[in-house]
Amino acid sequence: MVPARPAPYTSPPQRTPIEEPVGRILAIANQKGGVGKTTTAVNLAASLAVAEQRTLLIDADPQGNATSGCGISRDDFSAHTYDVLLGEATIDQALVRGVQFRHLDVLPTTPDLAAVEVELVDVEDRVTRMRDALAPIRDRYDVILIDCPPSLGLITLNMLVAADALLIPLQCEYYALEGLSQLLSTVQRVQDSVNPALDVDAVLLTMYDARLNLSRQVAADARAHFGDRVFQTVIPRNIRLAEAPSFGKPIVVYDVASVGAQAYMAVAHELIARMNSAAPDASAANPSSQAAPDAPAATSSASDPASPASSHDA
Ligand code: ATP
Ligand code: MG
Prior knowledge:
14 helices, binds adenosine-5'-triphosphate, binds magnesium ion
């Protein structure tokens, strides 16, 4: 039923050296629309906060679905991601603190954010705006998650420059891996220019349906290409996950007993374990752990000298 699939891209992206800790600033990115970026951003952030990780969720998508999905309305904030990127507010001024959980802060957004793509186009430091804005506050958090829009424009580029690593949600559907080469070559360009430490730390399989050959095939393909960077936990297709945003609640608040909530909690625990095992001492002490994400993977050193600014923000 499922046809044999050609390899959609030639090589996994470069790994950072083993002594690099797994990134604390994770850009949740995939330029393909509707693959579960926002669902992952909101529910992983909430699950991390439940696990007492000091968590910041940045809504970097003009659609603002992460903002509303956390139950934040326009009356709750005056400044937002747009103002931060334009230099009109600091992150501290724009943050909404203690959202649903004591340990969850959110940088909200509005549709105004879309204008950044045009308004920053001639600004010299346009791709480092978010990185610079985060610098004074990043140490306050254990994890910072960024919900990226479904494009590879200037907003996403800013987030890739600011991030330590990518978390790529992969929907278990046909063509899931198609188009990833475009994302990975953008990552490569960012590595080669402004952010050499950027890496793909994690791939999360979303909307998995164990009854479908197709889901199993996509999972197998992803594990073949990304190895132990794919979370062991898969996110099942779960109607409760789709319902929760309309109530402005993360799944752990909306229905903690649902399989969706349990899956995102499990991903949060995997991520925490990865971050802990990537600490220099722990990685040396735990070389055989199957879940350790920091085992050196097959690497490619292919480089693409094109500057991200020149190719994405014109
Ligand atoms: P965009 O590219 O537009 O930003 P996205 O990648 O952020 O989209 P989501 O908004 O998270 O994707 O998900 C797309 C749709 O699929 C939403 O309606 C969401 O509620 C639903 N959805 C996401 N994950 C699941 C799941 N595991 N089970 C059922 N529905 C899901
Ligand atoms: Mg989204």
